[in-house]
Amino acid sequence: MTFRSRHLLGIEYLNPDEITSILDKADQYVELNRSNIKHSEVLSGLTQINMFFENSTRTQASFELAGKRLGADVMNMAMEASSLKKGETLIDTALTLNAMHPDLLVVRHPNSGAVNLLAEKVNCAVLNAGDGTHEHPTQALLDALTIRRAKGRLHRLSIAICGDILHSRVARSNILLLGKMENRIRLIGPKTLMPTGISDFGVEVFDDLREGLKDVDVVMMLRLQKERMDGGFVPSEREYYHRFGLDKNKLSYAKKDAIVMHPGPMNRGVEIDGTLADDINHSVIQEQVEMGVAVRMAAMELLINARHPKKSADTI
Ligand code: NCD
C-alpha cells in the first residue's frame, strides 16, 4: 500500500492510487461494521483526540465511532466557540495537546488553512474534518465510496454538484477527487453562489437545474451555507427552492437510475424535497452516513501504518 502523506489534510495531496487504497480498505470495514462484533485492535494502545471548533453532528460522531471500533482511546475536546481566537490560541492548544502524545488528531475549524497550520506544529497524524470553505477530505472519500458501490465504478460518470458551491468545502473536495478519478463534473447553482473562474477547473457550469441535470448519473445536493453568507446571495428560500430545489420533476431530467446524495445537514424544502430525500429508489443519503464510519476507519489505519509500519501486521 502506497500512502505517502503523514496527514490527511485535503484531497489535493492524494493521488488516484491512494484514493483507491482508502476506498478498498473502507469496503472491508463496511463488512466489519455490518457484523455483530464491530471491533478491531488496529489502533489499540493509540490515542485519538477530536477537536471540533465548529458544530458537527455526523462527522464528529463518525470519527468517534471509527476510532472506538478500531480500539483507540478516543477523547472529544469541547472546544467552546468563545475560546476561538485563532492564531496563537490555536497554536497554543495544539502544542498543549501535542505534549500529551496523541497519535491522531481530528480537527474541524471555521478558518480555511487552520488545520494545515496546526499539522505543522504537532508530531502526530492530523485529519482534517473540515476547514472553512477549503477542504473536507473524508466527506469526499465517503461520497466516492458511496458512488463506487452504487454505480460499480468511480470513473467516466457524469456527476452534478448543485447549490451553494461558493461556500462549500464539500464541493471543493469532491471536485478535486472526482476530477482526479476522471469523471465529468457539472456544477449547478445561481451565479451568486458560483466561485469566479471555476470553469477553469475542467468543470461545466449551469445556472438552470433541469438543463444541468440532463443525463447525469449522480446528483449531489448541497446545503445553503447561511452561516458563511454576509449578504443576500439568494432572494428568498422559497424562490431558491423553486429554481434550485431538487424534486421528482427536476430529477426526471437525470438518468433513470441516477442516485441522489446530500452530505447533511439537510434543509428539507430548501435545497431538496423531503419525500425525495427519503425515497430509497434514488436517495443514498443514509448510505453516505454508513460509508462515513468505514472511510474514517480506513483513513486512520492507513495513516498509522504509514507512521508505524509494524502495526500493519494487525489488520482486520
Ligand atoms: C458539511 C460540512 O460541515 O462541511 N457537513 C458534513 O460534514 N456532513 C456540509 C454542511 O455543513 O452543509
Structural class: alpha/beta
Task: Identify low-pLDDT runs.
Answer: 311-316
Strand content: 5-15%
The major beta sheet can be summarized as: 5 strands, parallel
Protein model, in words:
The protein has 316 residues and is an alpha/beta fold. It contains 11 helices and 9 strands. It has a 5-stranded parallel beta sheet with strand order 7-6-5-8-9. It has a 4-stranded parallel beta sheet with strand order 2-1-3-4, sandwiched between helices. β5 (158-162), α6 (169-180) and β6 (184-188) form a beta-alpha-beta unit. α1 (16-34) crosses α11 (285-307) and α5 crosses α6 (169-180). The longest helix has 23 residues, at 285-307. It is globular and about 55 Å long. The chain starts with 15 loop residues before the first helix and ends in a 9-residue tail after the last helix. The model is unreliable at 311-316 (pLDDT under 50).
